[in-house]
Amino acid sequence: MKSLSVAGAVVALSAVVVVAAAAATSAVLAQAQNVITVAVEGLRNDQGSVRCGLYNSPVGFREPGKEFKGVAVPIRGGKATCVFNDIPPGSYAVAVFHAEHNEEKLETGAFGRPKQGYGFSRDASGTFGPPSFDAAAYKYGGGPSLWPVHIQY
């Protein structure tokens, strides 16, 4: 059996380190290209902003502050675009509302009916109230993905 010299061991170890670093860099770059874009349509005016929450669990779905990621974006021509970057593969649902007066939370009136326009991924709706996470969720495998949402008032 042949033994490795110290120089040979260093070269072999260096090769392993280079391969591991390349794999880690590749994984980071792949996740950096994992983008979910939410195209929001049907806004009744361009006032205020649109707030989008991306949720990765039924626990806390639609609850402010419980989202995996959240953004507020401007409205132009009755449309808005929410972009979520660096999203790992998994199941996700989006809840959106039209914050006409830049509210941070969706306001509700009698019987819990929203006062602002709202919508969900998959244009999901509930029978007596908002939809469940499962009704609104997509299985996201990575890469760029476009999810339309139509606002209801």
Explain this structure to me?
With 153 residues, the chain is an alpha+beta fold. The chain has two domains: 1-32; 35-150, Sandwich (Immunoglobulin-like). Helices cover 20% and strands 32% of the residues. It has two helices and eight strands; from the N terminus they run H-E-E-E-E-E-E-H-E-E. The protein has helices spanning 6-32, 133-136; strands at 35-41, 49-55, 69-74, 79-84, 90-99, 118-120, 138-140, 144-150. Strands 2, 3, 5, 6 and 7 form a five-stranded antiparallel beta sheet that branches. A three-stranded mixed beta sheet has the order 4-1-8, with no helix packed on it. The longest helix is centred in the N-terminal third of the chain and has 27 residues, at 6-32. Mean pLDDT is 85; it is low at 9-30.
Reported by name, the CATH topology of the largest domain is: Immunoglobulin-like
Kindly report the average pLDDT value: 85
> What is the highest CATH level, the class of the largest domain?
Mainly Beta
Strand content: 25-35%
CATH architecture annotation of the largest domain: Sandwich
Portion of residues in helices? 10-25%
Would you count the extended β strands for me? Answer: 8
Helix and strand run: HEEEEEEHEE
CA-atom Rg in angstroms = 22 Å
Low-confidence stretches: 9-30
* Quaternary structure state of the chains depicted: single chain
Shape: globular
Count of all domains: 2
Largest sheet: 5 strands, antiparallel
**What distance separates the N and C termini?**
78 Å
Number of helices: 2
Structural class: alpha+beta
